[in-house]
Amino acid sequence: MARTDDRFRSAYNKLLDICTNMEVGGQLPAEVVLAERMEVSRTIVRSALHKLDAENLILWEGRRKTLVKRPDKRHRLSQSESLPTGEELEKRFLEWILRFDVPAGTSLNIAQLSRQFGVPAHSLQAFLSGLSRFGLVERRAKGGWILSGFTAEFAVELSDFRLVLEMNAVRHLLSLPEDHQIWGKLKEIRKEHEDLRRDLKDRYHDFSTLDEKFHTTINSVVKNRFVVEAQKLISLIFHYHYMWDKRDEQERNAAAIEEHLDWIDAVLAQDRAGSEEAVLNHLRRSKETLLASLKNHKLG
Amino acid sequence: MARTDDRFRSAYNKLLDICTNMEVGGQLPAEVVLAERMEVSRTIVRSALHKLDAENLILWEGRRKTLVKRPDKRHRLSQSESLPTGEELEKRFLEWILRFDVPAGTSLNIAQLSRQFGVPAHSLQAFLSGLSRFGLVERRAKGGWILSGFTAEFAVELSDFRLVLEMNAVRHLLSLPEDHQIWGKLKEIRKEHEDLRRDLKDRYHDFSTLDEKFHTTINSVVKNRFVVEAQKLISLIFHYHYMWDKRDEQERNAAAIEEHLDWIDAVLAQDRAGSEEAVLNHLRRSKETLLASLKNHKLG
DNA sequence: GAAAATGATTTTAATTATTAAATACAAATT
DNA sequence: AATTTGTATTTAATAATTAAAATCATTTTC
Lengths: 300, 300
Prior knowledge:
In chain A, 65% of the residues lie in helices and 5% in strands. Chain A is mainly alpha-helical.
C-alpha cells in the first residue's frame, strides 16, 4: 500500500456530520462547495460521495445528491490517531537524549527511533537534517546518523551563543522609548519574582516557568527570524535541564531570582553598564549550572 | 529496484586495482582485511569476490582466493557520477532563487526541482527541512513546501543578524593577546587591500574574494558551531548578491575597501569605540547595497 | 585448543513503485 | 453564460524492495 487514507476518512466523517444536520430528502450542496467547507480537494469529496452512495445513504444522480437516510454511529469510519507535530517530536527527542544521557557518538537507528517516537521514519529524517544545522547530530558519509552529542563543549558553545543574543536584546531594549509596552511587562515580571521570592519554600518549582517567561520577554524585543529560531532551541535545552537536575533546586532558584531582579532593576533604571554586568553575571552562573549538571548526570 | 549499487561497483573496481598489483597465482588477503582496506563491509567484499570468481579472474575455494588472470580495462564497472554534495546543492538552490528572482510564496515542486538539480527527491526534502530552520522555506500543513522567500524583510533580518555576530567577533578580537596570530593575518589582509586599491581599475572584480576572506578572518576568532553555521549562510547569500549585481561595481568596491581599511586600522590600534563605529559603518552600507540590489532586481 | 577466517542470518536504510490526493481541463447541465 | 460535474494529469506520501552493514555461528588452520 502507499499513503494512508486518513484524509479521506476524516473527510467522510465530516460529510456524515453534514448529512446528520439535514432533512431526509434534502439535497447536498455542490461538490466545490463541500470541498471548500471541508477544506479538502474535490477528489476526496467525490470519493466520499461515492461511498455514501454505495452505502445507500444518498441517491446520487448527476448533480442530484438526495439524502435517503440519516447516517448513524455505525457508519463512521475509525481514524488512526494524529501524528505528533514537529514541536512534539523535537521535545521528545531532546527528552530522550537528556533523560537517558545518550552519549556523544551514538549512532542513531532511524527505524527504531521512528517506532519509539511513533512517527514515520521519513519525517524523523527530515527532523534530524534540520537539527544537523545546529550540530547536534551529523550525517555519516556511509549513511545513517550519529549523535554528535550533548557534550560539555556543546553546552559551552550554546551558552556563549545565548550570551551574545541576550546581550544584544538588552542593548536593543535600552534604546526603546519610554512608552513602549515592554516596560510595563518588565514591571509585572518584577512583581512576579518578588511574589515567588516571598513564598519560595512552597513554590520553588514554579521558577522554571517564570524563568522561561522572563527570558522570552527580554528576547521578544528583537524581531529577527534567525534570533527567534536559535532561541527556541536554547530555551528548550535549558528548560529540560532545569527539569531533571533537582539538586539544590531551591537554593539555585533563590540565587537566580536575585540575579533576575538585579537585571530588571538595572534595565528599568536605564543603567547600561549595570545591565550588561547583570546579564553577564546571570548567564555566567547559568552556564556553570548547566555544565555542572551535565557532569553530575554523567557520573550518576 | 531499490537502492543503487554504486557502492558495490566502486568496491569492485578497487578490488580489480588490488588484483592488478599482484602476481598471477598469488593469494588475495582475508575478507576482513580487504573490507578494512577498501573501507567497506564484508558483505560487499564477498559479493565482489563472487563476481571475480564468476568472471574467472580468481579461483575461490574456501579461504583460498587465487589470482588466475590479471584484470584489464574491460573488466571495470562503469560508475554513475557521484551526486552533488550538500553544499553543492545549497549553492545551486540559492543560485536558482536569486538568479531567477523566484518570488516569495512560490510553492516548490519537489519532483521537478529534484530533476532540475539532479538529486533524489528525498535528499532535496532533507535539505529543505534544514533550510526551514532559517525561515527561507516553510512546510505547508497540507504537504509540500513554499518559498517563504528572499524578501526585503529577510535581507534586513539577515543583515541585522550579521551585525550582531560580527560585532561580537570584533569585541572578542580586541581581547586577544598581542602574540596571537590574528594580528599578523590582519596586517597581511590590510596589505592586500592596499594593493587592490592601487590597481582597482584593472582588478576590481577581485574584491568579492577579498571581501569574503576579510570577513572570514574576522569571524574566525569565534569558535562556536552556531555562529559558524549561521555565517556560512550569511556569506553565501552576500557572496551571490555581489556576483549578480554589477551596477556601480567599481565605485562600490572602492568605498568598501576604504571601510575595510578603517575597520582594520581601528582594530589594530586597539581602538574599541573606533572599531565598533567602523563595523557599524561598513555593515550598514552593506545592508543598504543588498536591499537596493534586491529592489532593482525585482524591477529589472 | 585458541585464534582467525568464512558462511549464514538478521537488521538497517536508500530507492522505487504504488496509491491517495490535488490540480487542471473539458464537457454538460441549468 | 455561469455553474457544476466528469475525466485526465500531476504531485507527493508511504510501503515494498533490495543493497549494504552488522551480528552470530561454524569451520579451518596453526
